[in-house]
Amino acid sequence: MQETTSDRRPSTPPEADRSLRILAKSVYRELKANGHSRSDIVGFTSTLLELVTTDLKDGNED
């Protein structure tokens, strides 16, 4: 069986998962509170994913 990136990555502790969910909710609420539309928020998340993808392609897997 071939090893994948997720097989090599240590599991994320549950408190880290919870922290990231809280952070995501906070950012979402802040964007909404400042008048950003759903379209703006989708654009923001798309840009964030592009940055992560670029970072992974460059070999920065922190």
Mean pLDDT: 86
The separation of the N and C termini measures: 25 Å
Number of helices: 3
Biggest pleated-sheet summary = none
The string of secondary-structure elements, in order, is: HHH
Helix and strand content put the structural class at mainly alpha
Beta fraction: under 5%
* Dominant shape: flat
Radius of gyration: 15 Å
**Helix amount:** over 70%
**In total, how many beta strands?**
0
Low-pLDDT stretches: none
Describe the structure.
The chain has helices at residues 5-8, 14-33, 38-57. The protein is mainly α. The longest helix is centred in the middle third of the chain and has 20 residues, at 14-33. The two termini are 25 Å apart. The mean pLDDT is 86.
Describe the structure concisely.
The protein is mainly α and 62 residues long. Helices cover 71% and strands 0% of the residues.
Keywords:
62 residues; 0% strand; mainly alpha; 71% helix
